[in-house]
Amino acid sequence: MSYFVYMLLCQDGSFYLGSTDNVQKRFFKHELGKGASYTRSHKPVKVVYTEELVDKSTALKREYVLKQLTHKQKALLTT
Q1: What is the mean pLDDT of residues 39-50?
Q2: CA terminus-to-terminus distance, the chain
Q3: What is the CATH number of domain 3-77?
Q4: Pairwise CA distance, residues 24 & 20, whole Å
Q5: How many degrees, rounded to 5, is the angle at CA 23 between CA 66 and CA 25?
Q6: 2 phi and psi, to 5 degrees?
Q7: Contact at 8 Å (CB) between 8 and 39?
Q8: In the prediction, which pLDDT does 1 show?
């Protein structure tokens, strides 16, 4: 089963990174305020980046790497 790392753009211009096996379903949870505490206070606007990976472990490792990037570096991924 494929897993994805995804990045959301929030209303305040910040980014949220996560991983899931279903990006659309997870984004909907974020919109409802049930996805993560961060996105409850930083309302998500849209998914701006996805990356498909082979399994959950690989996705979590990639998520960690992407979270270490600066805001500017994350923004470059969205272009």
Answers
A1: 96
A2: 27
A3: 3.40.1440.10
A4: 10
A5: 140
A6: -80, 150
A7: yes
A8: 82
